[in-house]
Structures are given as C-alpha cells and as structure tokens.
Amino acid sequence: MHSRQIKKIQKLLEFWKSSQPLNERLQRNIDQSFMIDFNYNSNHLEGNTLTYGQTKLLLLFGRVEGRGLMRDFEEMKAHNVGLEIMKKEALDKKRPLSEVFIRELNRIILAGDFYKLSSDGEYRYKIHTGVYKTRPNSVITPSGEMFDYASPEETPSMMGDLVKWYNACEKKKTLSVIELAALFHYRYIRIHPFEDGNGRIARLLVNYILRRHGYPMLVIPTADRKNYLNVLGLCDKTTGKQPYNGANAKIEQVSAFVDYIANYVEKKLVFTKRIITGKIREIEETSKKQQKIPSDVPVNVPVNVSLNDTEKYILKLISDNPRITYNEITEEIYMNRKTVQRSIEKLKSSGLLVRIGADKNGYWKITL
Questions:
Q1: Does domain 309-366 have CATH number 1.10.760.10?
Q2: Of 117-126, 254-263, 299-308, where does mean pLDDT reach its minimum?
Q3: CA atoms of 90 and 97, how far apart (whole Å)
Q4: Could you tell me the CA-to-CA distances from 84 to 9, 38, 79, 89, 212 in Å, in that order?
Q5: DSSP for residue 217
Q6: pLDDT tens per residue, range 88-143
Q7: pLDDT tens digits for 25-76?
Q8: Distance (Å, rounded) from C-alpha 212 to C-alpha 197?
Q9: Is the peptide bond before 21 cis (omega within 30 degrees of 0)?
Q10: How high does pLDDT run on average in the chain?
C-alpha cells in the first residue's frame, strides 16, 4: 500500500465509523445485499453452479427454483449460516480467534460429511468436515508442476502456530488491519488445513478480521477470480514452494496480496460512502452482467451439439462420479427417472456418453 492510499482508506474509514449506527432500514438493506453477494461470489469462486437469481430466492425466501445440484443448494444455505456465525464471533472482543471456531466453521459451511471422487476417477472417498485433513491435498499447477500444501502430519502444529501468531499480532498491533487480514489469508491458504472448503474459510476469516476492527466486510467477485489466483500465485513465487515457508510468510513477501485486499477495502469504503450519502440506490456488489450469467457447468461440449440444462447437469454429475446410478442422478436433479433416461439416451446417441460394463458394476465414460 502506498502512503496516498493509506491516507485515503483512513479518511474513508473515519467516515464509515462516524456514520454508525446507520438507520435501521438502510442497515437492513446493506446487510441483505451483502448476504446475497458474498454467499454467491464466494461459493461461485469454488464452482457452485447456482445462479445469482437462484441464490437470492434461496436465501431470502427459502425457495428452490430452476435446476441445480442438490449439494449446491445445501452448501449455499450452510455457507450463509457460517457467515452469520462469523459476524457474531467477530464482535465478541473477549474471545480470541481459536482453532475450535475455525474447525466448526468448516463443518457448518460444508453441510456435513460427503463423498468425493478421486482425481484419477478410480474410487470415492469420504470428506470429514470440521476436522483437519487426513490425506495430502497437493495440486497440479497449470505448468504441470506439483504444488504442495502442508502435510496432514504438519497441519495441526501449523494451524496452532497460525492462530497463536494472529492473536499475538492483533494484540501488539504490529500490522495494519489490512496487512493482518491479507497475511492471515495467505498463510492459511498455504496450510490448506481441510480436505474441502479452504478458500471459503479464508474469505470468511478475512471478513472476520475486518469486521472485528470496525471495517465493512468485502466481496471478492467471481469475475475477478483470475486476478485473485494470479496474485496469490505471485506470492507463492516470492515465498517458495515449501509449505513451512508459505505458512510463515513475511509481510513483505505478500505485498502484492496486501495491495489486492487494500484495493477491495478501498472500493468497499467508497461504495458504502456513496450509499450512505444517497448518491447511489443500487447496493448490490455483483454487477448486473454477472447476475445474468446462467449456471456455469464446467463441461466442454462440442459446438455442434446442443444440450439443455438437464443434460449438462447429468454430464457434470457423471464427470464427478463415473459410477453414479440412475437413482442417484434422479435424486440430485429433482427429475423423474423417465426424464433422466431420455436425457442419457440423447447423450449416448450424440456420442458424448458411453456405458462401460453392466448396470450393477459398470461405469460411465464421457467421450469428449
């Protein structure tokens, strides 16, 4: 952060704090808009397929409309529960941040234990939520290199050190709030303590830190996903590949990510000032263009094949679990068996899907 930006943020923050408490109606509108925008974007960053409109209907009215994966609906609702718990926890200044709270947050946002398909598609394994990982969760980078997070054996001690560091740093005030939030996010991500939900937890805890220190909470939009990941990747190059070094990164090593978070804090403070002063009435933080984007199912379908939403969802389910059964597909997409059978027959006749082996012990193969 350069000195001019620091001064601007400080001035905007003083306006924000001096405007508290907001009138009840305005506060309710801001809270409601943030609830939708944050839940939608943070989940969408991780591949949730619900549209902005579906998210809004679900969180405001408890309604399920349109097609979607059952788990995506469940996790969206659960993530909102986690958001509300985080907001309350952040304001309790007598309670320091704890590993117990972080583990509970993970358990809540993932809506219970579930099964996931192995990267090679050979088997399914159970994700135990609310507990630290029991298997490595390394990733392959776009360049084909293996990038390691903390091992299961290292994770408990690294998480203990992270929480101790945060509480001590918060007490000593050796870093600015923005620096503290950015560095915590980066160190946490380099540990990657859970088998799933790490990105969502990181963004929840950034807002925990901001809210705890009187800042408005921020939204990292799906539209900026590439920049978000690129900046984190830039910090990885500075800290090196060793998980220990990443989990103990110095503030100067993550300056690019500090700037990234600072820019979003500044944007949010400018945004809230314009709302409070009546200069804008539309208070959604998700752009109108992004709101209109339909469910994004990551399946590469040839341009000469036209698929409806049901068929795309079926391909997504099969991609995630090649051994999925007709009954399981029916339960996931809220459609009757005949409709599922017709859709699968179309996929097979289009050359996109093949059944290998018998119904009982066989599996599906997508032939794209």
A1: no
A2: 299-308
A3: 9
A4: 26, 12, 9, 9, 14
A5: P
A6: 999 999 999 999 999 999 999 999 888 876 655 567 788 999 999 999 888 766 56
A7: 999 999 999 999 999 999 999 888 899 999 999 999 999 887 778 889 999 9
A8: 22
A9: yes
A10: 88
Cα distances from 112 to residues 38, 74, 79, 329, 338, in angstroms, run 21, 10, 12, 20, 30
Cα distances from 268 to residues 10, 179, 262, 264, in angstroms, run: 13, 16, 10, 6
DSSP 8-state assignment for residue 285: S
For the chain, the domains span 3-291, 309-366
- In the chain, beta strands by DSSP E: 114-117, 124-127, 139-140, 146-147, 353-356, 363-366
The two three-digit tokens of residue 26, written as one number: 């305005």
Same fold, 3-291 and 309-366: no
- Tokens 């598609």 correspond to 121
Q: Are 264 and 218 in contact (CB under 8 A)?
A: yes
What distances in angstroms separate CA 232 from CA 27, 133, 178, one per listed residue? 33, 22, 16
Which residue pairs, CB below 8 angstroms and at least 24 apart, start in 196-201? Answer: 196/110, 196/116, 196/127, 196/129, 197/106, 197/109, 197/110, 197/129, 199/42, 199/45, 199/46, 200/42, 200/43, 200/46, 200/79, 200/82, 200/109, 201/102, 201/105, 201/106, 201/109
- Tell me the C-alpha distance between 50 and 73, whole Å: 7
Is this model's pTM higher than 0.90 or not?
no
Residue 306 has pLDDT above 80, yes or no: no
- Which CATH code for domain 3-291? 1.10.3290.10
